[in-house]
Amino acid sequence: MGRTDRAGRVIAAPPAAVYDALTNRGSLETWLPPDGMRGRIEWWDPGPGGGFRMVLTYLDPADSPGKTSAATDVVDIKFADLVPPERVVQRAVFEADDPAYAGTMTMTWDLNADGDGTEVTVSATNVPSGIDQAVHEAGIASSLANLAAYLEAGDNRP
Question: I want to staple 19 with a disulfide (CB 3.0 to 4.6 A). Which of 57, 83, 85, 137 is the partner?
Fold first, then answer.
């Protein structure tokens, strides 16, 4: 059993808007890549049992070598559970030759109403051993900050 990494944040948007941003292709491409990366979705199959393939490219690969190539992380995501507007569970598999990145990581996004906003808690379980915990948790926190900025701008809601 692998380790579990976590991060959370309150976002000034209702749970339905947060859920939509977690299940909308254009939204995910905009906010999901953490700082220092950009993302592109290669294929998209929304809904239960579907998923997507995201190519994450490091803006400066010298500081952060990729898992798939020198400058990229490629990850196949499956939607394991979709419970609008409360939860999104994803199964993530990195494309990598290094066995330290092998296995299926589960990302659970729990959304709980918090006043006029949403408390978003992300738990990543069975994290591959090659992913540094502090870096991973900082990356999740960065994605959550991007999500907050995206939704709180008001005109970017899916």
Answer: 85
8 A C-beta contact, residue 78 and residue 66: no
pTM, full prediction: 0.92
Fold for 3-152, please state it: Alpha-D-Glucose-1,6-Bisphosphate; Chain A, domain 4 (3.30.530)
What residues have CB less than 8 Å from 3, skipping those under 6 apart?
Answer: 127, 133
CB contact at 8 A, 92 and 127: no
* Distance, CA of 150 to CA of 18 (rounded, Å): 10
SS (H, E, C) 85-106: CCEEEEEEEECCCCHHHCCCEE
Cβ contacts of 117 within 8 Å, gap of 6 or more: 10, 11, 12, 13, 14
- What does the angle CA 29 – CA 39 – CA 9 come to, to the nearest 5 degrees? 60
Q: Which amino acid is at 57?
A: T
Best CA proximity match to 15, nearest among 102, 85, 120: 85
Q: Which residues contact 139 (CB under 8 A, 6 or more apart)?
A: 34
pLDDT digit string, tens, across residues 130-156: 999 999 999 999 999 999 999 998 656
